[in-house]
Amino acid sequence: MHRKETDLLDLGDERPSKTRRKEEMHALQDLGAALVQLSRSQLKRINLPEDILGAVLDWQRFPKHEAQRRQLQYIGKLMRNADTEPIEAGLALLRGESAAENARLHKRERLRERLMADEKVLTEIIETWPQADLTRLRQLRRNAIKEQEASKPPKSFRLIFQYLKELESGVDRADARRRLALFALLLRMAQPPGEIPRERGGAHAA
C-alpha cells in the first residue's frame, strides 16, 4: 500500500468536513474576539503564545473597524496552530467560572500529555471508562504524533482532549440517570402501602 493511501486510512473519520472546518474556524475567531476585549493586565494572566499576544495587541491599536475585522481573522488563523485549551482555561478563570471545572480541564490536559508520551496509558483510560474506543484513541494519538513531527496544526491533539471530555460527560450523564432512578425508587417506597393509583375513568360498578 502506498504511503499516501496509508495516511488517508489513518485519518479515517477524523478528517473534518468543510462544514466542520468552517465551524472550528468560527469558534477560533470567537475565542480571539474574547481575547481582544481584555485589558493588557488581564492578557498577561493568560499564557498566550507570543504571536497571538502580539496580534491581539495590534488589534487593540487599530482604529478602524475594517482593519480590526481583518486582524480578527488573522488571530483565528494563528489559533489553528495553537493549543487552545490553556487559553480557554485562562479565560474561564478571569470570568470567575467554576474552579472544579478548571481542575477537570487541567486533569484532562495532563492525561493527554501522558498518553502522548506512552501508549500504555490507554490501559488506565479503559479502566476508568470501559466504554472508551481504544481504536479511535490510538488513531488520534498516531495522527497527533505525525502532526507534531511535521509541524502541522494540532487537530488530532485537540481531538484527543475533546474525546476525553466526551468520556467524562458520558459518565456524568450516566450518574445523573442513576440518581434520577434512585429518586423515583425512593418516591415509590414513600408511598403509603396498599394505596393503588386510580386509573382515569375507573371501572364502573357491576
Walkthrough of the structure:
Residues 1-15 and 199-206 have low confidence and may be disordered. The termini are far apart. Helix 2 (18-35) packs across helix 5 (65-79) and helix 9 runs antiparallel to helix 10 (155-190). With 206 residues, the chain is an all-alpha fold. It has helices at 3-11, 18-35, 40-44, 50-61, 65-79, 85-94, 99-117, 121-128, 134-149, 155-190. The chain is globular. Helix content is 72%, strand content 0%. The chain has 10 helices and no strands.
Helix content: over 70%
Report on the biggest sheet: none
Report the strand count: 0
Averaged pLDDT: 77
Strand content: under 5%
Structural class: mainly alpha
Radius of gyration: 24 Å
Distance between the termini: 81 Å
Counted by DSSP, the helix tally is 10
How would the global form be characterised? globular
Outline the low-pLDDT stretches.
1-15, 199-206
Instruction: Give helix and strand order, one letter per element, not per position.
Output: HHHHHHHHHH
Summarize this, please?
This protein is mainly α and 206 residues long.
Q: Can you give keywords for this protein?
A:
globular, 0% strand, mainly alpha, disordered C terminus, disordered N terminus
